[in-house]
Amino acid sequence: MKIYTKTGDAGTTALFGGTRVKKYNLRIDSYGTVDELNAYIGLIKDQEIDSEIKTSLFKIQNELFTLGAMLATPPEKETLKSGKERLNIPKINENSISFLEKEIDKMDAELPQMTHFILPGGHQAVSFCHVARCVCRRAERLSVELNDQETINNEILKYLNRLSDYLFVLARKLSKDLQVEELKWIPEKN
What pTM was estimated for this model as a whole? Predict the structure, then answer.
C-alpha cells in the first residue's frame, strides 16, 4: 500500500464512512489536534522518567487514537447498514476517565499543596507536559465547538478535560521526581 493516495490534493479528506470534507473542517481540526497531542505525549514518554508513568502514557496514546477515530466518524455514519457499529473497537467511556482520575489522585497524593500558579519549565520533560496540556485544552475547545454543531460522544469532552488535568499534575510529579524546583508565578507589585 502506498502512503500517498493523491485523494487529498484538492484540499479535501475523507471521514470514516466516506464523506469528503475540506481539510479545515472543524471535525478534521478536532481530531488533527488530538493527533498533535498524541505526538507530544510521545515526547514525554521518550524522556528519562518512571517506567510506570511511561506505561500510563502508552495507554493514553492508545486511547487518543480511539478518541480520534470517534471524532473522525460523523454521527450519521456511526452505524453500518447492517446495524453494526462502524468502529468495532472499545470506545472512550467512564472507565477511560476513571483511569485518568485514579492516576491524578495517585500522583497528587505525593505532591506538596499548591500555593501559587506554576510557570511551565524547569526541565525539558516538565515543559513537554505543559505543551501537551495546552494542546489538550485546544483539542477540548475544538471538540466543544464541534459538539455545538453536531453532537459528539460526551465522554470525549470529559476525557479531554480530565487529560489536561492529568498532564498538569504529571508536570508537577516530574518536577518532584527530577528534583527540579517548580517555577512559581509571583506577580510583581506596583
Answer: 0.93
